[in-house]
Design a protein that fits this description.
The chain is of the alpha/beta class. It contains 14 helices and eleven strands.
């Protein structure tokens, strides 16, 4: 297949310094929440050296579902469920006019000379924060073969909506969906994650074509959890940017396997997990969200949410620190290999390379392994590696965003973003 990628608009930055605002920018808008004041959030982002935010733009909800979103009720998952899980710890219920809120974000981006990567988490967890199941029901009602295309059409309509309000110039590029091989977008495709990448290719190429037909001058792509080194042949040939998420895990993988965090509730060993749980942790069978639809509307496994909610964050950090030395070399090697593979695909296909998330993985909200000295140094290494493969865009860390504790480490973010913008490696030895 011969495809000429859509050119990246000249007005965009030469390097994208990305902070991951995901769905948090609309589910966490209540009093005291990190996105209560969008201008303040952008002020802080610019102070830290960012020029781009990456968001779930809720495209299908706004431009495909037909649902009334003028008073969208959002809030926590129910009780204490998810309250000690990163990205899930919504503080209070809130009501937004969703289209107006989208315009407010893009208007604030324009005021602060920032750009937006327009993505969607709708087939992963966005709808789990809604008060009712209507949004989730609308998504799941679409045949799995057609879900990616429905997302693409909605994204194209979203671009048209922004154009009507003179805000489309803030778009860096569009992603049909986040981490396409992980979640309900890949429903019906079996096998490993890389098998799903290959199996998804026809669906995704149809989706990208549908977007191109409607918005021929806007770069569009999909993105992948990790770098699918065993499935790069499944990446659509008609994308305009290659976006991957190099979460290397390593020691975190070992922790997940040790305590069965990605397995079933039935297989979860509560006696063993007591080593890392807080005293008085409730039985896992009793731990659930406030509404049953939320169990399916989020893709995070029940044992992982349970351990993050009820775990002793310091004990978990200690486990990771104790075992890190065993995994350090492998994690460094995986990072280098994955970025090399991504770079090679991008060069061969003549498209820019972006790392939209990474680097170590999904740790408990109150853990500080990635915010601490080991994790922060890995962020610096990853910035150097991003420069080595000539990435167009990268992140300091997925946790370097207003809804995470790493936001407070202003110096680290300024150091990493300045290094990437000026292409001056942090480690020169």
């Amino acid at each position: 297949m011969s495809y000429t990628p859509v050119a990246i608009p000249d007005h965009l930055p030469r390097r994208l310094t990305i902070t991951l605002w995901d769905f948090s920018w609309y589910v966490r808008t209540g009093p005291g929440e990190p996105f209560e004041d969008l201008d303040k959030a952008f002020d802080e982002a610019v102070e830290r050296g960012y020029n781009t935010v990456r968001i779930c733009a809720m495209p299908y909800l706004l431009f495909g579902s037909g649902l009334d979103t003028t008073a969208l009720h959002l809030g926590p998952l129910g009780g204490a469920y998810g309250q000690r899980v990163r990205w899930y710890d919504v503080g209070a219920p809130t009501v937004i006019d969703a289209r107006a809120h989208l315009l407010a974000l893009f208007a604030a981006a324009k005021r602060h000379d920032c750009y937006v990567i327009v993505s969607s988490w709708e087939y992963q967890q966005s709808s789990s924060f809604a008060e009712t199941s209507d949004w989730f029901d609308a998504l799941i009602a679409i045949d799995p073969e057609d879900r990616a295309e429905a997302q693409a059409v909605a994204q194209a309509d979203l671009v048209a909506f922004l154009s009507e309000h003179d805000l489309a110039d803030r778009i860096a590029f569009v992603e049909v969906h986040n981490e396409v091989q992980v979640g309900h977008l890949a429903e019906g495709i079996t096998g490993t994650l890389d098998d799903r990448v290959v199996g998804l290719r026809p669906r995704l190429e149809r989706a990208v074509t549908a977007f191109h037909e409607r918005q021929p001058t806007v770069p569009v792509t999909v993105n992948y959890a990790h770098v699918p080194v065993g499935g790069m042949r499944g990446v659509p040939e008609n994308i305009d940017v290659l976006v991957t998420h190099p979460y290397v895990y390593g020691v975190l993988d070992a922790f997940i396997a040790e305590y069965g965090l990605r397995g079933t509730v039935a297989a979860f060993d509560e006696n063993k997990a007591s080593e890392i749980l807080l005293p008085g942790a409730p039985p896992i069978a009793s731990w659930g969200p406030g509404a049953d639809f939320r169990r399916r509307a989020t893709i995070i496994s029940a044992p992982e949410i349970y351990v993050h909610d009820n775990g002793d964050a310091e004990a978990i950090d200690r486990w990771l620190y104790r075992h890190f030395s065993i995994w350090e070399q492998a994690m460094n090697e995986r990072l280098t290999l994955w970025l090399d593979v991504a770079r090679d695909w991008a060069v061969v296909h003549g498209v820019p390379l972006v790392f939209g998330e990474g680097w170590i993985g999904y740790t408990p909200r109150d853990g500080r392994f990635e915010e601490g000295p080991v994790g922060a140094e890995f962020c610096r290494r990853a910035i150097d590696e991003s420069m080595r493969v000539d990435a167009w865009g990268t992140i300091v860390c997925s946790n370097a965003a207003p809804q995470h504790a790493m936001w407070a480490d202003v110096a680290l973010q300024q150091q990493c973003n300045a290094a990437f913008v000026h292409m001056t490696p942090i480690h020169t030895a």
